[in-house]
Amino acid sequence: MKDSNFLKAQNAKSMWHPMAHPGEMQAKPPAIITGGEGCIIRDIDGASLIDAVGGLWNVNLGYSCEPIKQAIADQLQDLPYYSTFRGTTNDKIIELSEMLRTFFEPDGMSRSFFTSGGSDSIEIALRLARQYHKLQGESGRTKYLSLKKGYHGTHMGGASINGNANFRAQYEPLMPGCFHIPAPYTYRNPFNETDPRKLAALCINALEDEITFQGGSTIAAFIMEPILGAGGVILPHKSFMPAVRAICDKHGILLIADEVITAFGRTGAWSGSRLWGVQPDMMCTAKAITNGYFPFGAVMLNNKVAEVFENDKTGGAAIGSGYTYSGHPVGAAAAIACLNETQRLDVPVNAAIRGTQMIEGLRKLADKHEIVGNVRGGHGLMSALELTSDRATKAAPDKATVGKVYKTAYENGVMIRISGPNIILSPALVISEAEVSQIIGALDVALSNAAS
């Protein structure tokens, strides 16, 4: 490794960082992470921190999962790459596809289409939804519905269905035919409704109204995260996703579950859809499928969708989408090892227990600190604090205050994620009771410091 002084001097000068202003990164260079083990990461100065972010929602098994590392090393020796385009495949991707079929069988999924990550998976699902309707003789179904505050990656299609202006404004005009309904977000919503069940019903009414306005026969798919992640850990009432499923069925609209964050145990259930008792038509996965150790993703499809493609006699079912790294053998090997270890550890159990500990600790912080406007979470290890400068008006704090919380938490040994006024917490699903306590303790100090 280069000398640390060199790395610090060159930090952010020769690269642009995702989701950041290039000039700001140069003015305030980001933390340089050089090592990790378990739920702990180390920076270039040797400081150890609990990673309360879990990488980027993806390092569910921590940073020292030897079975995945070994599977990657072994596969690099056997076959480091080969294409799955037209007429070739590899042994590992066949094995993985069968594992995923079995794993997602309770969700109604039976087929896989492999990608390089979450944004890719979203793009493929949007394309396949339109193609499905064309094969059904309904070529007018080209529109998509999604939730405000929802996040679906950064490709042009994903940006178009994203429900947050931060990921849209600089790239407009985006793809036409994308429309959004209010999210079941009790802290901020256009109905001023704080009761989760009542708000869910209002959002469902808004969905019905939008379908009526657009014309149900023009809509290809409704896409949603079972729990909204990057939008601030927004949990719908348990009635919401089943009601969405029923409406989609009523109007012949495909339901796509964006499970890039919620699949593989993070919610305390094996998938977010399973948490709510819903079987979607497609599921987009990535992130924890390889524990973040290899860029990889998969779109899962149910029999209803699969059979329309597989039984086509017109030639229109030929899939004109794919990536150089679709079905990469090293990624497949990593995913097989990851899925085996994820199931062996039964990670939803610990996610549920530690998630309860986390949300109880955060609620105590809210009782203590006026700067906390809202606490969200309670289903597995997905939680958030929304900060405010005034609880009565719910005004967001200034950027410097939020930055102070981040800095103080870091200085107290915890890496957190800041998104607007939100502190988002999504640690590894193997985190310990003591480590969750340390996260709460560091936040306590950071919130006190920010208010002083």
Compile the SSE list and pairings.
Elements: H1 4-10, H2 22-27, E1 33-37, E2 40-43, E3 48-51, H3 54-57, H4 66-78, H5 91-103, E4 109-115, H6 118-135, E5 143-147, H7 156-161, E6 178-181, H8 196-214, E7 219-224, H9 240-251, E8 254-258, H10 272-275, E9 282-285, E10 297-302, H11 303-310, H12 329-345, H13 347-368, E11 372-378, E12 380-387, H14 399-411, E13 414-415, E14 417-419, E15 422-425, H15 433-451
Parallel strand pairs: 3-13, 5-6, 5-7, 7-8, 8-9
Antiparallel strand pairs: 1-2, 2-3, 4-10, 9-10, 11-12, 12-15, 14-15
In a nutshell, what does this entry contain?
It contains 15 helices and 15 strands. With 452 residues, it is an alpha/beta fold.
Q: Could you please describe the fold and organization of this structure?
A:
This protein has 452 residues and is of the alpha/beta class. The chain is built from 15 helices and 15 strands. The protein has helices spanning 4-10, 22-27, 54-57, 66-78, 91-103, 118-135, 156-161, 196-214, 240-251, 272-275, 303-310, 329-345, 347-368, 399-411, 433-451; strands at 33-37, 40-43, 48-51, 109-115, 143-147, 178-181, 219-224, 254-258, 282-285, 297-302, 372-378, 380-387, 414-415, 417-419, 422-425. The strands form three sheets. It has a seven-stranded mixed beta sheet, sandwiched between helices. Helix 8 (196-214) packs parallel to helix 9. The mean pLDDT is 97.
